[in-house]
Amino acid sequence: MQNMLTIISNALCRITGRNVGTRVVVSRSFADFTPQATFDIKKCDMHRLEDGPPLKAELTRDQGLQYYRTMQTVRRMELKADQLYKQKIIRGFCHLYDGQEACAAGIEAAITPSDHLITAYRAHGYTFTRGVSIKEILAELTGRKGGVAKGKGGSMHMYAPHFYGGNGIVGAQVPLGAGIALACLYQGNNQICVTLYGDGAANQGQIFESFNMAALWKLPCIFICENNKYGMGTSVERASASTDYYKRGDYIPGIRVDGMDVLCVREATKFAADHCRSGKGPIIMELQTYRYHGHSMSDPGVSYRTREEIQEVRSKSDPISLLKERMLTNNMASVEEFKEIDIEIRKQVEDAAQFATSDPEPPLEELCNHIFSNSPPLEVRGTHPWAKLKSIS
């Protein structure tokens, strides 16, 4: 064996003109990988539709690696948030998104950056897919000046261009999403609004009022119910007389999608976006997904479901593992490549956490800034007559 290595080493020396010793490194080039593959995806259940999303999805190697990177980043970021919360560095409300990454990654892959998105309080994943950095998200969670909302919004109130939060009131973002879609229709810009809510909000009256107006005015709005099986600690079967959330629009078409498969979500969202852009009005999507953490950090998540149930979903339906296995099976990437991505993401998250714990908190004089987006400085009444607070846009 040693003689063979010596022969190979000498040959490499003659070819390259460098002394490589007896160490031979074998690496695969990009040409070794399959550049594109087609996968069978689960058929969507449909309501008031003759045709639905396709049953096959094409995936390029670059797309696959990008989706993997996005989902893995959200996963590591949420696990870091969990750690910082348990260390009491993050305080207050904190709802984590791990387990549901395919929803955010798949939706973003199917819409354009100029399209609009609004969601509920479980917003960290969408904040990232809409273009906000890990550093700004974690710094916002720790209440620091470098946070995306300058440390004054926290977990539920993060924003970006064409991303409207992060809303703390259950279901309140749905009428707002319908209003954003109305603006798109009014301006005639061919843009759509993706309006997300959970199964826990699905029984609220304001949801159905929004459906009614959106159908009357044919608003370009995709109403998406992220059904993660539990509204806080209550299972959907105990909370809803009908758990067919995609049919809840009655007169609005709907589709039910495997929300643990990023390709299913992408293709369904493309279908829904085309529906809206063609002037047919709103459409409802139900994404069947699952959260690994409890409802929020104050909920251990195992008093109303078993650890075995959570582990079964992790082992059989994890969105990151599913994509990774597809790519490995079809020779679209290597195990080593995924490991390198994982190491890179871990470092990014660690660096972001370092920033989020060392960046200063916003000073008191900035407390009231940005009450209005564009106005002259104004005085703000404080808790006592001597408080001298000002708001600067």
From TrEMBL:
Domain spans labelled Dehydrogenase E1 component: 70-364
Record CDD domains: TPP_E1_PDC_ADC_BCADC
Enzyme Commission (EC) number: 1.2.4.1
Biological-process GO terms, alphabetical: glucose metabolic process; pyruvate decarboxylation to acetyl-CoA
Keywords for this protein: Carbohydrate metabolism, Glucose metabolism, Magnesium, Metal-binding, Mitochondrion, Oxidoreductase, Phosphoprotein, Pyruvate, Thiamine pyrophosphate, Transit peptide
Protein role: The pyruvate dehydrogenase complex catalyzes the overall conversion of pyruvate to acetyl-CoA and CO(2), and thereby links the glycolytic pathway to the tricarboxylic cycle.
One GO molecular-function entry: metal ion binding
Cofactor: thiamine diphosphate; Mg(2+)
GO CC entries: mitochondrial matrix
Enzyme class, spelled out: oxidoreductase
One of the Pfam families matching this protein, by short name: E1_dh
The name this protein goes by in its record: Pyruvate dehydrogenase E1 component subunit alpha
Main location: mitochondrion
Keyword set includes DNA-binding: no
InterPro entries for this protein: DH_E1, PDH_E1_Alpha_Subunit, Pyrv_DH_E1_asu_subgrp-y, THDP-binding
Reaction(s) this enzyme catalyzes, per UniProt: N(6)-[(R)-lipoyl]-L-lysyl-[protein] + pyruvate + H(+) = N(6)-[(R)-S(8)-acetyldihydrolipoyl]-L-lysyl-[protein] + CO2
Subcellular location(s) of the protein: Mitochondrion matrix
